[in-house]
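Hi Y.,

Following your request, here is the sequence exactly as I used it, all 207 residues.
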Amino acid sequence: MSDGGARARAGFMAMLMLVVVVGSAVLGWRYLPALPLASAEPTVIETQEPAYLVMGQDYYVHVKLIELTPRRPDGGKWEPRAASAPDIGFNLYWNGTRIFESSVRDDRLIAEWDLLRLDVKDALLSGQVEVAAALNAPLVHAERGGVLTIEVYDEDVSFNDEAGRFELVAEELHPGVNMLKPEGTGVARMVIDLIPRDTALPDLLER
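Below is the corresponding structure, written out as tokens. Let me know if you'd prefer a different format.
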């Protein structure tokens, strides 16, 4: 075979190989699974910030804990004639109307109140007591502009010493636990639990 024929055959084989390679690449690309496109929507990142109250819904207002400062706001003792701690109580008002008066916790700086009255828990579990009557928490109807007022005092024989009075706007409250640490009063901290009225009984017992 002449040199010219050999060169022509080599060129033909090279062209054939190029066609095979290109064709395989095209077919492979044609039948590859489609890759997902990058989403144009922003990624939603969950936050720990709790939601606010839903306006138009009812909530139980459970004051769980109140801690008073060691001395009254004016610097004096809570019990001038004794070294005992204050007797802590509170009143709740909704839009200026008193809706709840607590029992008093004697001789302590930190007072707690159960959600359920202890003397009716057994009856409640047996289904013989109305849930609303067993709760140490009044109901409020969340509405824009609604004001929850908490009046904390030290109970005395002659007159009560006011420890602090706080007005909380409904739009600024959260369902669940709300922690308050007011300054310039006799209250060091206060814990309030706002519970939706439709909360199931097992969840109420757990709280």
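Residues 55 and 142 are 5 Å apart (CA to CA).

Thanks again,
Q.
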